[in-house]
Structures are given as C-alpha cells and as structure tokens.
Write a structure and sequence with these properties.
7 strands, about 110 residues, about 30% strand, alpha+beta, about 20% helix, single chain, five-stranded antiparallel sheet
C-alpha cells in the first residue's frame, strides 16, 4: 500500500515506514526543527536513548535517518513497526516534546 506525503511521489509502506519530506511546506510548526543543523537536531530530548551513527539514530526496531542537504536537515526518514516511534519521528522533524506524542499518535 503506497503512502504519499504531498511530495508527489508514493512511498511504499511496509510496517510503518514513512518518509517525511517536504514538511517545511506544512507551515510554521513544521519549520521549527527542519532547516537546523544535524548537530542541533541530534540534541533533541526525543532522540535520547537512541544510538547515533552519523545522521542515523537507532533503537530496537526503529531507525531515524536525517536527510541533510548543505548541512541542514531537510527531512527525516522513519523506519519502524509501531505508532509510538512513528509519532516520535514526526516529533523529531517538528521539534515537539515528549508530552506532544500521545496526542499525535491518535491521528
């Protein structure tokens, strides 16, 4: 089953794989974290407990990969099998806090 996030291209969804590209087009909230440097993004509390290797963060069956262009984060690739970490991936892109994630999981 394909999933498209306003990028014009469909991304196959296996488990809960999701490509977050073009989120900066979604408005001010989306721009909160995108366009920061990878170093700023890596310091987010939402990534605490994840093992970092370059622009890739892993924990159990979840991987977040920062899409970086000209030393700016322009997207986040989320590979996971659960909705909690899928919401966390959105939170990483949008600079949300831990308390925002339960409500985001409902949508």
């Amino acid at each position: 089953m394909p999933f498209s996030l306003s990028s014009g291209s469909a991304v196959p969804v296996r488990g809960l794989h999701l490509l977050l590209l073009g989120a900066s087009l979604l408005g001010c909230g989306a721009q909160a974290q995108l366009w920061q440097t990878p170093q700023v993004t890596a310091k987010q509390p939402l990534l605490a407990g994840y093992t970092a290797a370059g622009h890739v963060f892993r924990k159990k069956d979840t991987t977040f990969t920062l899409d970086v262009v000209a030393e700016r984060v322009v997207g986040v690739l989320v590979e996971t099998t659960n909705t909690a970490d899928l919401a966390r991936g959105f939170g990483v892109a949008w600079d949300m806090t831990e308390k925002d994630l339960p409500e985001l999981q409902k949508t």
